[in-house]
Amino acid sequence: MTTDRHAIPWLEWGADTFSRATAERKPVLLAIGAAWCRWTEEMDRVSYRDPEVVRLVTERFISIRVDADRRPDVSERYTLGGWPTTAFLTPSGEILGGGTYLEPAPLVLVLQQVSEAFATRRAEIDTRVGEPTGSRRTLAGPDTAAPVLDVDAGRWLDEQLLACFDRTWGGFGSASKRVHPDALATALVRGRDTASPDLTHVATHTLDAIATRGLWDPVEGGFFRYCDQRDWSEPHVEKVLTVNAQLLELFLSASRLLDRSDYASQATDIVRFVSGTFADPDGGFYASQRADPAYAALSSREARSGHASPPIDRTVFTAATAAMASAYVLGASVLEDSSLLEYAATSIDRVVLATYEPGAGVGHNATGMPVARGLLTDQVRVSAALLDLYDATRQEVYLDMPRELMAYCDQMMWDEAGGFTDRARTGLAGFDAPVGLLREPHRPLGLNCDAAIVLARLGASAGEPRYRDLALRTLACQTPVYREHGLDGASYVRALDQIQAVEGS
Q: pTM here?
């Protein structure tokens, strides 16, 4: 809780905080931000320091602050249009309304309107949000027939890739550009496997644009998060570990599949940036570097040397570290650099030793408090990295933890209505009971597809068919929904192709 009398008294997300809102009959102000987001910092510095804002929030609201990276489960359900999110909730956790960044004057107006409406129209509000939490959003259950794998998924994705591809600038769509890692990875593999030069061109034209246009920092290296313009210009200049992990793996894979030395060189440059900026001397990787457009606009190291570097969030997150560790394992092979394999092993050792609890899986962050526990992303990413280490070293010890983590997922997160949920059913162990929209089951497509790949690989490596069966069930649960996700449905095709490859090996 914040104790500065000139600042808002922020509280942690949790059942006790919402109970306090109920007891005091106050609405909740939920602020969701990220350490890398400059508008989050700006709102903290200006809007949430305005005396009238502080007075209104302190007197009329229960205020909760959530870091989107530390609590992805909360962010997934409550983020409204991006970060920072300014959301207003009932004491039961239902959304009353909200938006994104607000300057002091409009924030004061909104705070007055919400607090007055909550005080004078409480019965109406209770009626409007009085349904049991989740009843409006929970997906329908599966059909009576068990779902099966879609044999036409590859053809469907090929059509999506070619239809959405920007033939002029690369990437997909005609507006802002972001990395679509599963779509690009699948285009690379399917271009090779189907001998389709069009699919290969989708991947290479996009990777070339990513490497040479606005997404890459030409001075200090590293990729920014995304670009506002179709031609990969006007980047949002925060640097996030997960984006760089995805692109490192893409350039390494493209180098190997297409025998492109320039892609290997780009991968080497990414490793140089990550090792110099994000690698923690104790093992693992830092999470992000905050956006600073004025700093990023300086076009040389000499010009930048006179300015303070943007701050780095030195939190070591389990899933993000595991993703980069997997990329380092691949880099050790493609770039013939054994030090990358050694550092990947050190990184996974660190997050497992720091966060693992028997019967409760691994926690979400190896540094900083509190530590969320019981998130699907951490179990899946760590298991994938350990299987990568097993493939590289053939050391049986790397199979033990994936067995336990995926058994934990099966026990605590499996939902017959659609695969794995993003968090343990009973809440995050040792952290909080599910509140508000967290009571709703969220079954993320991409993570379920990644879990299916992990299970298939584990079954083949450990010689245990039960993992293969669970892999097929997991992926089949996504058959009814994957096409609704557009290009992000590539994760389904990628999982299908990899499971078939595992079975054929």
A: 0.94
